[in-house]
């Protein structure tokens, strides 16, 4: 009983996850220690044992780390192809579990492998991928190391200017974190660069500084390299005595390192280990045969079977060996290509992210001057311009509105491509929604002498749960397109059921027109961004070619499909199918604050004070002009700190707060105001993308948001509405 309890206890201890992890970590740490001592085979053995334990417990993080260290070891013993294979396994595992910290380290080792293979451009790609991960995770020491490796690669490419700049970054990072090894190595490499550039004084200064750090910290390999670098510098300045002296030191130290490496060669130790293991097995077989000598018949039979078995095994081994060699060559090629594809994917993701950030910044920067264009054109139109100026001002206003539509379309495409569009399902009346869209677009249709016909399947329910805003966007774009390309004709909008399963309906929406049609050639790429029928169509009808791309993106998000059927001069039919959930609940009534619809003259505006917080002088002038026209007084400040002090010292009814300003931002200023005044009306007057920042505006404590550029009438209604609400609150109090 005691024995069974002991066995059971031992088994439970062995299966304890914490103990298993400690065992794995211990072997990984030991492998690193042995690697530093040049005991490569002992390091390999520790890694193999750690891998068995990690695979047994399905510890993916540890498996990834182990394969990465294996790759590093295989690189040291000049097995680059095996290193690529191990690193691909590490990267595959680390990508699955989003282990970005160790993924960056694997990319860095990948770069070292390609650097050894003299594939310098692949090495740079790997180091770039590693840098991206280290920056994300804030791994400063690893970032310094990979910057140094990147600099060394540019040295191999003989681009010494670029190498100097990057190694300077690595050195700054290493000094900041006091990473001695990287600091020493970077200084030595600076010595090499300045020697190549002919600045021997700087080269000696950097190399001697690196040598000093290497000596103090016993960095043998860096010390050996520093002796060689200083020898080369002295040779370049024709001080041959010192050059020989440092070369002698280098050869002496490098010989000792080489001897140590050879003594601890992984291949030699592995061969000896396998021979010992084979001898032990042979001795064991001989002992067993000797024990069976008493029974001659049995001994003979065993001998015959043993010979037969050995023969069969030998043939199988030979066959497997040949097949394995072929498979290994193929696998090595596949692993290399796989590694290249992973790096390419990382680069593409980084490029996509950079593009998204660039577009966001550019569109914001465009919105700010656009506020001036639309604001000034509206003002000038209201100030009784000369008759010959009216048409010019209207053209300016039209251009501003067109540019704003274009910017909004780019933002929408950018969000779709970056997967930042969220689905917001709600119950709504589909038939009523389409009727409202038709009514809204009817004036444009009448301008082109078009009649719109709407057919809704009589057997189809009207109330569904879906993202009605996106469905509206799709239909407005498609119907708007039909109106644009049809003259003196008809447009038919049809909705009917394709499939019904439980409460889910697959509906088909059709938008058909008898306009100019689309050629078969143009139909193939019409859903791509900036694609239009032809240059002539673009000039005649206008537009950016983004509408159908947005439609396609939104339909994909709604898990639907879109098709087109068209013939030149006969018309076009767009039809898309999306799933919608039926609901018996009627459309929720909107509970939004309505615009002020009373008489502004009834409001007492004599004592109303508004503070405008805006750093752009033109925008200050426009906003002040609009407020003056509304009979409202305002103060203007151009930074957040002054705004907070002004609000503390004065009583304001409304604050119009810009977001991007010198000093503290509008967000921070509003947070500070909310610490002492919870009721004050604060509008965010901003050109940033509202949808992306909505939660930040709420958290900061803004009452509402007015996006720039705004329509003057909407701006006025929001302000009057806020003033009316303030008046009601005062009366109640």
Automatic annotation (TrEMBL):
<feature type="domain" description="Response regulatory">
    <location>
        <begin position="609"/>
        <end position="723"/>
    </location>
</feature>
<dbReference type="InterPro" id="IPR004358">
    <property type="entry name" value="Sig_transdc_His_kin-like_C"/>
</dbReference>
<dbReference type="InterPro" id="IPR003661">
    <property type="entry name" value="HisK_dim/P_dom"/>
</dbReference>
<dbReference type="InterPro" id="IPR005467">
    <property type="entry name" value="His_kinase_dom"/>
</dbReference>
<dbReference type="InterPro" id="IPR026000">
    <property type="entry name" value="Apc5_dom"/>
</dbReference>
<dbReference type="Pfam" id="PF02518">
    <property type="entry name" value="HATPase_c"/>
</dbReference>
<feature type="domain" description="Histidine kinase">
    <location>
        <begin position="361"/>
        <end position="582"/>
    </location>
</feature>
<dbReference type="InterPro" id="IPR011990">
    <property type="entry name" value="TPR-like_helical_dom_sf"/>
</dbReference>
<dbReference type="GO" id="GO:0005524">
    <property type="term" value="F:ATP binding"/>
</dbReference>
<keyword id="KW-0547">Nucleotide-binding</keyword>
<dbReference type="InterPro" id="IPR011006">
    <property type="entry name" value="CheY-like_superfamily"/>
</dbReference>
<feature type="modified residue" description="4-aspartylphosphate">
    <location>
        <position position="658"/>
    </location>
</feature>
<keyword id="KW-0067">ATP-binding</keyword>
<keyword id="KW-0802">TPR repeat</keyword>
<dbReference type="InterPro" id="IPR036890">
    <property type="entry name" value="HATPase_C_sf"/>
</dbReference>
<dbReference type="InterPro" id="IPR036097">
    <property type="entry name" value="HisK_dim/P_sf"/>
</dbReference>
<protein>
    <recommendedName>
        <fullName>histidine kinase</fullName>
        <ecNumber>2.7.13.3</ecNumber>
    </recommendedName>
</protein>
<dbReference type="InterPro" id="IPR019734">
    <property type="entry name" value="TPR_rpt"/>
</dbReference>
<dbReference type="Pfam" id="PF13424">
    <property type="entry name" value="TPR_12"/>
</dbReference>
<dbReference type="InterPro" id="IPR003594">
    <property type="entry name" value="HATPase_dom"/>
</dbReference>
<keyword id="KW-0597">Phosphoprotein</keyword>
<feature type="repeat" description="TPR">
    <location>
        <begin position="184"/>
        <end position="217"/>
    </location>
</feature>
<dbReference type="Pfam" id="PF12862">
    <property type="entry name" value="ANAPC5"/>
</dbReference>
<dbReference type="InterPro" id="IPR001789">
    <property type="entry name" value="Sig_transdc_resp-reg_receiver"/>
</dbReference>
<dbReference type="Pfam" id="PF00072">
    <property type="entry name" value="Response_reg"/>
</dbReference>
<dbReference type="Pfam" id="PF00512">
    <property type="entry name" value="HisKA"/>
</dbReference>
């Amino acid at each position: 009983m005691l024995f069974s309890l002991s066995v059971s206890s031992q088994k439970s201890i062995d299966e304890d996850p914490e103990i298993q992890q400690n065992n794995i970590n211990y072997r990984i740490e030991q492998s690193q220690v042995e690697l530093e001592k040049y005991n490569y085979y002992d390091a390999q053995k520790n890694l193999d044992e750690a891998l068995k334990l990690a695979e047994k417990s399905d510890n993916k993080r540890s498996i990834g780390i182990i394969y990465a260290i294996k790759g590093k070891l295989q690189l040291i013993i000049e097995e680059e192809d095996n290193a690529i294979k191990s690193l691909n396994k590490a990267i595959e595992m680390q990508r699955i579990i989003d282990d970005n910290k160790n993924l960056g380290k694997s990319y860095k080792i990948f770069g070292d492998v390609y650097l050894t293979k003299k594939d310098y451009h692949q090495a740079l790609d790997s180091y770039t991928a590693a840098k991206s991960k280290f920056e994300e995770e804030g791994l400063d020491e690893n970032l310094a190391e990979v910057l140094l490796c990147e600099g060394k690669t540019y040295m191999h490419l003989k681009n010494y200017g670029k190498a100097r700049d990057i190694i300077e970054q690595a050195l700054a990072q290493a000094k900041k974190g006091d990473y001695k090894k990287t600091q020493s190595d970077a200084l030595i490499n600076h010595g090499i660069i300045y020697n190549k550039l002919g600045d021997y004084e700087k080269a000696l200064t950097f190399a001697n500084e690196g040598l000093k750090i290497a000596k103090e910290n016993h960095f043998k390999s860096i010390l050996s390299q520093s002796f060689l670098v200083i020898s080369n510098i002295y040779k370049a300045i024709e001080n041959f005595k010192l050059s020989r002296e440092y070369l002698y030191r280098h050869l002496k130290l490098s010989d000792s390192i080489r001897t140590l490496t050879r003594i601890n060669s992984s291949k030699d130790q592995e061969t000896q280990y396998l021979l010992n293991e084979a001898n032990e097995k042979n001795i064991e077989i001989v002992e067993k045969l000797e024990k069976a000598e008493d029974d001659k018949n049995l001994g003979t039979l065993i001998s015959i079977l043993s010979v037969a078995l050995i023969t069969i095994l030998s043939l199988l081994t030979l066959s497997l060996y040949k097949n394995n060699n072929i498979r290994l060559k193929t696998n090595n090629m596949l692993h290399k290509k796989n590694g290249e594809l992973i790096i390419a994917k990382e680069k593409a993701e980084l490029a996509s992210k950079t593009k998204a950030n660039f577009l966001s910044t550019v569109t914001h920067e465009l919105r700010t001057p656009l506020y001036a264009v639309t604001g000034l054109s509206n003002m000038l139109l209201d100030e009784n311009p000369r008759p010959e100026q009216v048409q010019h001002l209207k053209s300016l206003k039209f251009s501003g509105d067109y540019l704003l539509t274009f910017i909004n379309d780019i933002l929408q495409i950018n969000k779709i491509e970056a997967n930042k569009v969220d689905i917001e399902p709600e119950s709504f009346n589909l038939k009523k929604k389409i009727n409202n869209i038709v009514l809204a677009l009817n004036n444009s249709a009448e301008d082109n002498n078009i009649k719109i016909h709407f057919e809704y399947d009589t057997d189809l329910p009207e109330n569904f749960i879906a993202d009605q805003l996106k469905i509206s966007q799709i239909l407005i774009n498609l119907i708007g397109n039909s109106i644009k390309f049809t003259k003196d004709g008809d447009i038919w909008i049809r909705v009917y059921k394709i499939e019904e399963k439980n409460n889910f309906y697959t509906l088909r929406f059709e938008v058909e027109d008898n306009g100019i049609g689309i050629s078969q050639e143009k139909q193939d790429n019409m859903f791509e961004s900036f694609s239009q029928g032809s240059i002539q169509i673009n000039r005649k009808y206008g537009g950016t070619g983004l509408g159908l791309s947005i439609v396609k993106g939104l339909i994909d998000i709604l898990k639907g499909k879109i098709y087109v059927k068209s013939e030149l001069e006969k018309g076009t039919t767009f039809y898309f199918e999306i799933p919608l959930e039926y609901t018996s609940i009627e459309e929720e009534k909107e509970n939004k604050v309505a615009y002020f619809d009373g008489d502004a003259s009834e409001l007492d505006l004599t004592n109303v004070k508004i503070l405008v917080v805006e750093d752009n002088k033109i925008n200050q002038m426009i906003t002040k002009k609009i407020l003056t026209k509304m009979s409202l007084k305002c103060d203007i400040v151009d930074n957040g700190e002054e705004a907070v002090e002004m609000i503390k010292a004065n009583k304001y009814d409304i604050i119009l707060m810009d977001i991007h300003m010198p000093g503290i931002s509008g967000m921070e200023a509003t947070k500070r105001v909310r610490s002492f005044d919870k009721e004050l009306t604060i509008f965010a007057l901003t050109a940033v993308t509202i949808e992306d920042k909505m939660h930040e505006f709420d958290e900061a404590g803004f009452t509402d948001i007015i996006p720039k550029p705004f329509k003057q009438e909407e701006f006025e209604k929001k302000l009057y509405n806020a003033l009316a609400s303030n008046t009601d609150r005062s009366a109640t109090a």
